[in-house]
């Protein structure tokens, strides 16, 4: 059985009677405060700054570009990079595959093959030695170790471990895919596009004003990328430290609704680690999963098929507590 195929099956080494580490009934107050500071305050600060700059260095064009590109490129990562290319949760046409690969590249989180191989290694060794962005493995079980682990998982790993897993071990299927390799070779063209597009719209909407073009580039390019990247980074850090566990998995993955809201459903991370190949992460009631709605919409249009979901029986066997 290949490494890729194994990702779609129950976590290796687990049995019905396996012990589950660090399971609590609810998130502690301290955890809630940390989550608030790390996830909620930056967007609130962005809104406050925007209000102060309204009419001076921010317009409706900038807001529309920020939101539209945040959603489109974010879905490129969540639906494309993650659920389609990494876990093969569904199948689709070459055109849709190319669209998601390009949109994902426009978040500047690396080419498709690099992102996927890193993430597959994360699942193979989740929260164990060798996991590229675990906040737990290799860090002392004290406050200072937790702080260092949080920073490493959030963004520290990007500076010395990102892109180390290349080749066939975790990405043979994608390295054999001519379409994906071609899109990867044009990665820097997509990086240019992610900035050029908002500049062009701002420039034209502002009556061919390069100043308004630059303003749109800042909000629809730089700030949008900053905001989405840190939302994504929070899946690696916050969702392995703070939140609830509803299903049995062999790691410390957690469900965090705030991160889920910012990442179109990726914050239902414990659900995902319990059922890695599932196209749906928001498995329980009230767990909003916009990426899943996107896949479901494609399926209804005949553009997605072989959509993989856990059965009710599988969910019942792995459930720890009510969501």
TrEMBL record:
GO terms for molecular function: oxidoreductase activity, acting on paired donors, with oxidation of a pair of donors resulting in the reduction of molecular oxygen to two molecules of water. It is a multi-pass membrane protein. The chain crosses the membrane at residues 33-57, 63-81, 186-205, 217-239. Residues 59-287 form the Fatty acid desaturase domain. Keywords: Fatty acid metabolism, Iron, Lipid metabolism, Membrane, Oxidoreductase, Transmembrane, Transmembrane helix. GO terms for biological process: fatty acid metabolic process. InterPro entries: Acyl-CoA_DS, FA_desaturase_dom. GO terms for cellular component: membrane. It is found in: Membrane. It holds the Pfam family FA_desaturase. Belongs to the fatty acid desaturase type 2 family. This is Fatty-acid desaturase. It comes from Gaiella occulta.
